[in-house]
Specification:
Blueprint lengths: L9 E8 L2 H10 L6 E8 L17 E7 L5 H4 L2 H16 L5 E4 L3 E4 L2 E10 L10 E7 L25 H22 L1 H10 L7 E5 L4 E9 L5 E4 L5 E4 L3 E4 L1
Parallel strand pairs: 1-2
Antiparallel strand pairs: 2-3, 3-7, 4-5, 5-6, 6-7, 8-9, 8-12, 9-10, 10-11
Helix pairs in contact: 3-4, 3-5, 4-5
Length: 248
């Protein structure tokens, strides 16, 4: 069965733009209701989590979904897991011979290396209901950066002919629409179960780098809020809401 663009989702495409997330913010400020996907052939100021630069060369996918979920910020943050599942499932459709896994909090791995990343941004303070949410997703289709702390890769590097970014976006948008409806209808529990079924490193040792410390232990899963569950050497299971994760 051919993949169809999801009903109700608009699309705005650019050859070159500063950042698809920035365009999402501009559209939201201008009154765009969404949901709308924004894609770019190349970004000049793409960024990842924690303000890092995200390289966006031609041939890779750079896209952002702007939508208005109408739920508190804590609930909207759950959509990073839905986006990770959607990105992973899209990559499986594009490269079925490869194995893809999701990495906490919001990456997709191929062969243990990062092939896709996700950045959520919103207009909210505390747990107020955001007026908009931007879900930025980058996929390394044709190439990948070499100088990243966590090793990266691309489909081309793994021997898969790089799909066209438009084809990748089609699969991504269709998969996200499916998981968004699951989240809206069944809540985070269903997303959590689906994410864990695709998780990398589950049951193995990891290092979690927090703002002021580093913790090591066994990756036990994620809790009902999406926090990482780390079993320490003392046997205590610690819930970590934000960290950089590395496999031990």
């Amino acid at each position: 069965m051919s993949v169809q663009w999801p009903k109700g989702y608009a699309l705005k495409s650019f050859e070159v733009i500063d950042s698809t997330n920035e365009e999402a913010k501009r559209l939201a400020a201008a009154g765009e209701a969404g949901p709308v996907w924004i894609s770019a052939g190349r970004q000049t100021a793409g960024r990842g989590r924690r303000g890092r630069s995200w390289q966006s060369p031609s041939g890779n996918l750079a896209a952002t979904l702007m939508l208005r979920p109408g739920k508190p910020a804590g609930a909207c943050a759950q959509l990073s897991f839905a986006a990770a599942i959607a990105a992973r499932d899209a990559l499986v459709a594009l490269a079925p011979a490869l194995e893809f896994r999701v990495k906490w909090p919001n990456d997709v791995l191929a062969g243990g290396r990062k092939v896709a990343g996700i950045l959520l941004e919103s207009a909210s303070q505390g747990d107020a209901v955001p007026t908009w949410l931007a879900i930025g997703i980058g996929m390394n289709l044709a190439m990948h950066p070499e100088d990243t702390e966590f090793p990266a890769t691309s489909l081309a590097t793994l021997g898969v002919p790089a799909p066209k970014p438009d084809d990748a976006l089609l699969h991504l948008a269709a998969n996200f629409a499916k998981w968004y409806e699951v989240w809206r209808g069944e809540g985070f529990a269903a997303i959590r179960d689906a994410w864990l079924a695709r998780a990398a490193g589950l049951g193995g040792r990891i290092r979690a780098r927090l703002a002021h410390e580093e913790a090591s232990g066994v990756f036990e899963g994620i809790d009902d809020n999406g926090a990482l569950l780390l079993r320490t050497g003392s046997g205590i299971v610690r819930a970590i809401p934000a960290a950089e994760v590395f496999f031990a």
